[in-house]
Amino acid sequence: MKLYSEDLSPFSAPVRLAIYAKGLDIPIGPPPGGPRSEAYTKVSLTGLVPCLILDDGTPLPESMVILDYLEDRFPTPPLKPAGPEARAREALIRRFAETELLVAQVELFHKFGSDEVAAAAALALAHFERGLGLIQGLMADDGFIVGPALTTADCVLIPALMGVAMVAPVVGRPALVADHPKVAAYVARAQQHPAAVRVLGELQAAVAASGFSLG
Ligand SMILES: N[C@@H](CCC(=O)N[C@@H](CS)C(=O)NCC(=O)O)C(=O)O
Hints:
The protein is mainly alpha-helical. The protein has two domains: 2-73, Glutaredoxin; 84-210, Glutathione S-transferase Yfyf (Class Pi), Chain A, domain 2, CATH 1.20.1050. 57% of the residues lie in helices and 5% in strands. It contains eight helices and four strands. The chain has a four-stranded mixed β-sheet, covered by helices on one side. β1 (2-4), α1 and β2 form a beta-alpha-beta unit. α1 packs across α6, α4 runs antiparallel to α5 and α4 (84-111) packs parallel to α6. Glutathione binds at residues 9-11, 35-36, 48-50, 62-64, 106.
């Protein structure tokens, strides 16, 4: 098994976080030839990162599908809560984190440097506000997003919220995360998990190395 991933990729970060939290010995590397290259598309199906290559060479792209596969294949330690209601809540929060926070920030990144950035920033802000509001209303009062243990929803949310905080000045709301006090308190707690520390460090180093400026 092998994971193709890029440190700068917001969709790759949740999968690496899950791998680190589970203590899995899965080699992780950049896509050969880069995303969308002919060589990488041949092995990965979509040409996008992340993509998990199974032992028989089968490509498993799509970050949320990979998270669920890792959970089924390596159930210990679990990254899903117990009980159908808690599992549904976790799935719902993960869905909002994916669609309202991650997709919106990646769409915005694609417009940086173009004359469409202002429109993209306004659209991203609307998604961020909706996502943060929904998640704040659903989240647990303490611990991780649905309780005392890290879940796949946390694996998505932790890097997604760092991305939102980073682009908040670009969308005209520097205090966007702080304006959602329950979310801000969650960030402070959740970022301390050792797997989160590792992934956020990788993301920050990759942003610094890219020379990318949000100013
Ligand atoms: N829905 C996919 C999205 C994957 C995605 O958009 N990956 C980006 C990096 S964050 C990528 O590979 N971009 C390369 C490109 O668009 O050329 C997932 O959840 O894995």
